[in-house]
């Protein structure tokens, strides 16, 4: 596999939707929650997000999009949102490269990069902590799942 990371635009929205839904099915199974926001987000919502100017990157194997990550910026904080890797290539370092790309390309004024994942998603928690993120709090999300917020200071 010859993976390169690059920006994604609204033209990639259909591929992003496909990967996102495939990638988040495991989380839906884990929690018995088929209405997770990444699974019910519409094509138009993805297009709008990809067109809003915030950092968004894709992992490409040739012309095939195999992973994506988006962000949301609020003041001096940036959320890492919707990190998704195609199930057939998970575990090969694609997610780490996407996380690094989004974290290191935050706008200059951003001081904290943050994200959240399910509190029972042990693999995700280990992955984010191994990338330098630190657990800061827990909350219930919109569908009632206990989530852990993790942060990383921008140097």
Concise overview:
Helix content is 33%, strand content 34%.
What does this molecule look like?
With 155 residues, the chain is α+β, with helices and mostly antiparallel strands. The chain has 5 helices and 7 strands; from the N terminus they run βαααβββαβαββ. It has one domain: 3-Layer(aba) Sandwich (Aminopeptidase), CATH 3.40.630. It has helices at residues 13-31, 37-40, 43-50, 94-104, 122-130; strands at 3-7, 56-61, 64-74, 77-85, 112-118, 134-140, 146-153. A 7-stranded mixed beta sheet has the order 1-2-3-4-5-7-6. Strand 3 and strand 4 (77-85) form a beta hairpin. The N and C termini lie far apart (32 Å). The model has no long low-confidence stretch (mean pLDDT 95).
Instruction: Give Rg in angstroms.
Output: 15 Å
Amino- and carboxy-terminal Cα gap: 32 Å
Mean pLDDT over the full residue set:
95
**What about the largest sheet?**
7 strands, mixed
